[in-house]
């Protein structure tokens, strides 16, 4: 075996630079200085005897061979993650580091209840959390940046396994001034698309809400798109429209301090499924199932 092999750290630098297209951002993602990352890449190029990246003041451009090597580097890093997972799976369950992604329509409402319980039950677990919209979280999972993702289904997250935890019902939310209009359960056909406020694209809750209503045209006619559920609630409280909220957020107190009212949706499937997902075939699958069970108890 050659003694002149690239290090995993050098490959991480290369992949990070390709992902971010900027030396400073890549260095930040790798938790090193820009000079350290640049030096590591120069050492890699010297080792291979190739130019992998063309450097200019404004643009970072990968050479054709640099693109191919970066693609292979991803595979090498993924296999290194599997090796680490095998070692962790052979040890004490739910101990050591675990990188979990959580989507924004779950994180602020479930984590405050979840984290104290996990710390008490699994004191040796070092849980690192990353909040991302579903598409980004699933991409991070496939690329090995995350070990598992707490998300809402249905959603196509790639080649993954998952454990369902619970159903999260969706509720119709409206200003108190419209109390007389919505006395009981609200059928989807009663929702005025001209008043509907939804989350912007990238949030799977938008798709789940439209699916629950079985009215896909609502997405095209929505009055305004918000960046978070808290923003939507404030807009509804100010009489700017109506929206759909998950029960999880309501139970966590998102309506506290507002006059916003809610009613159940009178629909066939007015809910989303909260689940934990991980890469298919992961050596830590039993751990993730155990973690999902623990999360289910909290919920």
Detailed description of the structure:
- The longest helix has 27 residues, at 64-90.
- The protein is built from eleven helices and eleven strands.
- It folds into two domains: 8-87, Orthogonal Bundle (Arc Repressor Mutant, subunit A), CATH 1.10.10; 98-299, D-Maltodextrin-Binding Protein, domain 2.
- It is α/β, with parallel strands linked by helices and 299 residues long.
- The mean pLDDT is 86.
CATH architecture of the largest domain: 3-Layer(aba) Sandwich
CATH class of the largest domain: Alpha Beta
End-to-end Cα distance, whole Å, is: 52 Å
Describe the biggest sheet? Answer: 7 strands, mixed
Number of helices: 11
In percent, how helical is the residue content? 40-55%
Q: What radius of gyration results from the CA coordinates?
A: 23 Å
CATH topology of the largest domain: D-Maltodextrin-Binding Protein, domain 2
Report mean pLDDT, rounded to a whole number: 86
List low-pLDDT spans: none
Provide the number of structural domains: 2
Shape: elongated
Q: Per DSSP, what share of the residues sits in E-state strands of 2 or more residues?
A: 15-25%
Summarize the helix and strand pattern as letters.
HHHEEHEHEHEEEHHEHEHEEH
SS-based class = alpha/beta
